[in-house]
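Milestone M4 deliverable, item 7.
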Amino acid sequence: MAATAFDQDTPMESIPKVPDTCGQVCFTPPMPPLAPDGVGALGILAGLRRNAYSAFPPRCREQPVLVLPMLGRDVVIAAGPQAMRDVLATRPGLYRRIAAGDRIFGALIGRGVAASEGEAWRRQRRILAPAFTPRTVTLLAPHMAACTEAALGPLEASRGEPLDLLGVMQDLSLAVACTSMFSLETKAFGPQLRDMLHFYADGIGRPRASDFILPGWLPTLTTFRRSRFRRRWRALILAIIARRRASHSAGAPRDLFDLLSDAYGDRDEDLLADEVSTMIFAGHETTGLTLFWACYLLANAPDWRRAVRREARQVDLSPVGAGSAAGALPHTRAVVEEALRLYPPAYMTARQAVADHELCGVPVRRGAIVLMPFTLLHTDPRLWVSPERFDPGRFLGPEKPDRYSFLPFGAGPRVCMGAQLATSEAVLVLARLLRDNDLVLDEDGPVLPVGAFATRPNRSPAFRLLPCA
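Output delivered:
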């Protein structure tokens, strides 16, 4: 794909800000087809292992709540905003986390706040809340900026060479997660963390139909394989914590581990390790993939690359100024939000009904599995103008999308605590990347999302960084 010329004189006002004015300049990324309309509950669950973007049929959009019977237990597809609001925020007491969540993510996050329930969850949430205030972004922004500078230096020295941007962004997000959390370089343990995360996500971490169908107490062959992985993963996390405690001096700048240690004290060292595991996993997977997808979209949208570059050159992105810069990059933030709309890393959430009730007027039986596919919500033409198009302008201006039409980090009491942190990191990295570089794809051909463990690309295309004035 040929590089496009960079025009410094294009006014910011030429960047489209209203969805129905973008016309032909908007990039329409390719997407996998939806499932056949006649697919049943078992077909949907089986499809989740292959690709959630192709697991759900079109009729899930036409009915706000679709009930599909399966082996004595219903599968409910709640793809509309009101249904998701009711499940996640209005009446969360009618639902609990499903056993499949523990099966799929338990090996990584153990008893961390994302996996707990009831009073244990409320206690953990109260403990962790002080570590995820807006002040935390200011505290950790210098770590983010320093890691970004270290990662981009070699790339900028070899501009024009083919670049595996997916690997770069995953490595960078892992470095940020580890550095901002532990104030440690990742040379000693970074490769092992990365290899273990990739091994899990590409294999035994992918959801199986049995994860949803079987009760949590009934083991499978995959259960034993995940347990073996859990032992190795936990040993690595404990070794990292031990190294951090042995090497950190009293006068060093505070990091996320300090905040978590203050929150937990000496109450539960095992639970602290699970919270650390959750932060490393989320930081690597969520932010790295968001950055890749944002770069892929921008490589096909030269006007928006120029918009990001222009505002990036108006702020201080160094470790000294990064804390205040994150809130002064509206166009870059809009690009990140649009990437999260089209490619939410957490493509779906699920709950289990704990009592008979009605959801949007539809009867839901106790024990039903309720699936909420954000992939369908974020591309519903009744909620979004031209939802198939890449148009960050929909996140600019006075009219914002409805809260329950855009849920990349969930909603309600269990909304992701690190949402602001992850978004700010993606904004700062993207702004610094495009401040001094142009970004182009080095090959043609579609790149499709695969929603399995997270929303990953079906292939990693080559990019090139090019100099710009």
